[in-house]
Specification:
234 residues, alpha/beta, Rossmann fold, 2 domains, 3-stranded parallel β-sheet, 7 strands, binds thiamine diphosphate, binds magnesium ion
């Protein structure tokens, strides 16, 4: 899942994977890309296995098949298209999820390996704080209603690997063009759209001339947005 899709599956869902996207792209037989362009996060399509059958669904016909050849393109509202596909496939799927168990287990193992690699930094007491520890601490504070807004380069990458928004629309980031500076306007917009929800903004503020191999992060702010009120969500 990329930023726009984060939270679509809740953290506990058996199909929720956060750290194995690249692994999945390189090993899958069929890849269905829904509502997102082949942008820098997918190596403009290069990270998808060249042998995979690729289906792309998007509302905008200009996005379908852009940057990478695809096997099937469907132009339309993602929700409506997926609903129609589900209806058409109902009762016709041979074996269903049980047939994909082996692949799902493989992905889960890749996910676990990636998590274990990060664990020392997630728990690190180092000063300045390691970005993994920072975003992990914020994640522990998120409630069902929290909207997480990331603004930056590295901090969004770190956040994307750790932070788990609880439902769709509860994560905002600089998007397919990586446009920095969206943090404050996104907080204002989120507050306007969902006045009773709490928004969290994370941005890495400064660089330090740090020794090679250590974090470039010298300070970071994480705060409940100044635009958010103390109103308890309903
Ligand atoms: C508007 C804009 N200008 C420039 C860039 C190119 N760019 C990508 S990451 C980056 C550095 C960002 O540094 P910082 O805001 O400190 O975030 P961090 O990487 O530390 O999270 C720059 C300049 C961009 N993505 N968007
Ligand atoms: Mg920075």
């Amino acid at each position: 899942m990329n930023g726009a899709g984060r939270g679509t599956l809740p953290p506990g869902d058996p199909h929720h994977f956060q750290l194995s996207r690249r692994y999945a792209f390189s090993g899958a037989d069929v890849i269905v890309i829904v509502g997102t362009p082949f942008d820098f996060r997918m190596g403009y399509g290069k990270r998808l296995s060249p042998d995979a059958t690729v289906v792309q669904i998007d509302l905008d016909y200009r996005t379908v098949g852009k940057n990478r050849d695809i096997d099937l393109g469907i132009v339309g509202d993602a929700g409506l298209v997926l609903k129609a596909v589900t209806e058409a496939a109902s009762g016709r799927v041979n074996g269903g999820a049980s047939k994909r168990k082996e692949w799902l287990d493989e992905l889960r193992a890749a996910e676990q390996t990636a998590l274990e690699k990060r664990l020392p930094n997630l728990r690190s007491d180092a000063s300045p704080i390691h970005p993994y520890r920072l975003v992990s601490e914020i994640n522990d504070f998120l409630t069902e209603d929290s909207i997480y807004i990331g603004d930056g380069g590295d901090i969004v990458t770190f956040s994307g690997q750790v932070v788990q928004p609880k439902s769709p629309g509860h994560w905002m980031d600089p998007g397919p063009l990586g446009t920095l500076g969206v943090g404050v306007p996104f907080v204002l917009a989120a507050k306007q759209a969902r006045p009773t929800r709490r928004s969290w903004r994370s941005s890495a503020m400064a660089r330090s001339p740090s020794p090679a191999g250590t974090s470039r992060l010298s300070s970071a702010t994480t705060s409940p947005s100044s635009a958010s009120s103390a109103t308890t969500p309903p």
